[in-house]
Amino acid sequence: MMKTLLLSAATIALTTGSALADYTLHVIHVNDMHSRIEPISKYDSTCSAEDNAAGECFGGYARVAAKVAQLREELAGENVVVLDAGDQYQGSLMYTTYKGDVEIELMDRIGFDAMAVGNHEFDDGPQGLAKLADGVSFPVISGNIDVSRSDLLKGKVRNHVVLELGGEKIGIVSALATDTVETSKPGEAVIFQDEIDSLSADVAMLQDEGVNKIIALNHVGVNKDMEIAGAVAGLDAVVGGHSHTEFSNTVDGAMAYPTMVGDVPVVQAYSYSKYLGHLVLTFDDDGNVIDATGNAILLDASVEEDPAIVARIAELAGPINEMKTRVVAETSEPIEGGREVCRVAECQMGNLIADAMLARVAGQGIEIAIQNGGGIRASIDGGEVTMGEVLTVLPFQNTLSTFRVNGATIVAALENGVSKIEDVAGRFAQVAGMSYAYDASRPAGERVSDVMVGGAPIDPDKVYGVVTNNYVRNGGDGYAMFSGDDKSAYDFGPDLADVTAEYLAGIGPYQPYLDGRIVEK
After folding, report:
1. What does the alpha-carbon distance between residue 510 and residue 521 come to, in Å, rounded to a whole number?
2. How confident is the model at residue 323 (pLDDT cuts 50, 70, 90)?
3. How far is CA 184 from CA 178, 228, 440, 475, 500, in A?
4. Helices within 18-147 (DSSP H only)
5. Phi-psi region of 415 (alpha: psi -120 to 50; beta: other; left: phi over 0)
6. What residues contact residue 16 under an 8 Å CB cut-off, 6+ apart?
7. pLDDT at 9
């Protein structure tokens, strides 16, 4: 009896006199997949089967699934969580054709632990997000949207989730960019709260429940993520999306993976399935991060594709392959359409699309074309141009809209376009029939100057004919000045992708160009 008591006392002394082992968590993550179900080219558009076979492509769901499975096998016995920071929807013919069914099926095959709501999950209204939330077997979360007033979404989107791994509770909180009301179609029943206020409240609630390891899985963009990391007490890491930012320790010019804000690591995994993020967090006994390492893993041809998923994707692609592979034009060299260019400056793809829009309606007294940079989703490589490539650039099924407004309204629209240029926001105005300059160092609303239409200074009082896409005309991306029934508007023109393809086809080998129509001072 005495021996037993001595042993018990020794055991108690040992456990109370020394620290418990540190806790390590592996966070595997993606963001902004944008329906890149098939592999992508270096221009972020869907890659051809021939180029994929030649080892020239990246990503695609079969590679993402294979790499996640490989990491899970290598990390067997470790604590692993697989997260998606939003925007599975919109960006390829797979989404246009199947409206989310493919994304839902393949996400479940991979087995995510949680997903943040992205703004493009609302592109087909609240019903599109409801379909996703009902269809997947893991929680879809966003803490700063109140969906309780929505008959379609009530009870389907959670504020946060708590996962139990290795005997520890991991809290996942989330926020969605509040300008989603301008960039997509959440509907009036979805109410947004400030991102930082919402996250702070959710973190405090989890801490009160004894959760001391908390990750923010956000879809707000890197600048807001950095602000959140510095402002929200109790966060241990921020895994983000929305801005498609490249974090890497091996790519020149990329942000460090992770980038630290004080003691809080911030990461993203670019977009379009090109990378898989792998963040390794080590916590002490009190739940403080004492080490944060990792990198974004390039999913190039060295990552073998999951054969079962390759076969399933081929089956799904069958009905749309004929349209995708139809050659519609030719270009003498690649046409630059990258978001890092088209959302901050004149770009070749912006010129092409705006020129095509204006040419299509020139006989209707229209003088100006405006295309939002966020509607341009990829570049096109040199040589033959397929309809599939055009639809990857312009996947939204937007139609041409014509309307009439005065010059002062046009200047206000251009100011809107550059108002969030530091965030690489999609509202940046690509134009035709006009030119303008901007100074990003000035306050928003005072950045635009030297606006010319047809070679003459814009007249604030003159009424001009304008063509844009129906999304912008109806107030998307902050263009509220274009909406309303008082502008002699017609919103039901031809599909913008068809207009662009037909314009390209009528030119012969297209020569991409810049001509100084947009100048940064």
Report:
1. 29
2. confident
3. 11, 23, 25, 10, 23
4. 49-53, 61-74, 93-98, 101-110, 126-135
5. alpha
6. none
7. 35
User: Which residue is associated with the tokens 């109370």?
Assistant: 16
Calculate what percentage of the chain has a pLDDT beyond 90: 88
Domain borders along the chain are 19-310, 327-520
CA of residue 337 relative to chain centroid, distance: 15
Q: Which parts of 119-179 are beta strand (E)?
A: 140-141, 145-146, 160-165, 168-173
Domain 19-310 has CATH 3.60.21.10: yes
Q: What's the whole-model pTM score? A: 0.83
Confidence at residue 20, expressed as pLDDT on a 0 to 100 scale: 60
The two tokens of residue 458 are 């814009």
DSSP string, 54-77: TT--B--HHHHHHHHHHHHHHTTT
Q: Are 435 and 518 in contact (CB under 8 A)?
A: yes
Mean per-residue pLDDT for 354-368? 95
pLDDT at residue 19, as a whole number = 47
CB 254 within 8 A of CB 248: yes
The CA distance from 142 to 119, in Å, is 11
What sign has the CA pseudo-torsion 460, 466, 471, 474? positive
| 239-282 residue pLDDT tens | 999 999 999 999 999 999 999 999 999 999 999 999 999 999 99
Assign a CATH topology to domain 327-520.
5'-nucleotidase;  domain 2 (3.90.780)
The H-assigned helical ranges of 237-386 are 307-325, 339-342, 348-361
Nearest alpha-carbon partner for 116 in 174, 167, 37:
174
| 48 alpha carbon, distance to own chain's centre | 23
